[in-house]
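sry for the spam today, last one i promise. C-alpha cells for design, 127 residues
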C-alpha cells in the first residue's frame, strides 16, 4: 500500500520538477528584449486599437456559444450511438436504443425551447 503512495508521490515530484526545469531552461536561453510602449500595445490583426480594450460584451454571445456547444457535443455523441444502433438493429435489439435516442433528443429540444422562450436566441431585442 505504501509503495503505491510512494509511486504517486514520485510521479508528482517528477512531473513538477520537469515543469520547473523547462521554465528555468527557457528563461536562460531566451533572448532578452527591451520593453517599449509599442511592444506592449494591444495587437489585433494588424489593425490599430480603437477605443478602450475594456469593453463589456453582451451576455447573449455567451448564451449562443453555450447553445452551440450543446448541439456540437450532441453531434459528437450521436455518431457512435448511431453506429451502435446499427449493430443492435441488425440483431433485433434496437428498440431500446431508439427510445434512448428519442429521450436524448427530447432533452435537447427541451433545452432549446427553454432558451427560445427566455429570449436568449433573439438578437434584435436589447435586454
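last one done:
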Amino acid at each position: 500500500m505504501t509503495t503505491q503512495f510512494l509511486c504517486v508521490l514520485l510521479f508528482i515530484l517528477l512531473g513538477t520538477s520537469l515543469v520547473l526545469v523547462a521554465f528555468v531552461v527557457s528563461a536562460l536561453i531566451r533572448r532578452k528584449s527591451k520593453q517599449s510602449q509599442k511592444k506592449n500595445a494591444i495587437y489585433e490583426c494588424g489593425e490599430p486599437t480603437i477605443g478602450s480594450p475594456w469593453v463589456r460584451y453582451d451576455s447573449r454571445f455567451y448564451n449562443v456559444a453555450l447553445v452551440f456547444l450543446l448541439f456540437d457535443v450532441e453531434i459528437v455523441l450521436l455518431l457512435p450511438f448511431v453506429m451502435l444502433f446499427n449493430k443492435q438493429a441488425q440483431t433485433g435489439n434496437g428498440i431500446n436504443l431508439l427510445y434512448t435516442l428519442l429521450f436524448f433528443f427530447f432533452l435537447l429540444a427541451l433545452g432549446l425551447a427553454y432558451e427560445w422562450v427566455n429570449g436568449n436566441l433573439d438578437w434584435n431585442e436589447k435586454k
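Residues 59-117 form one domain. ok im logging off now
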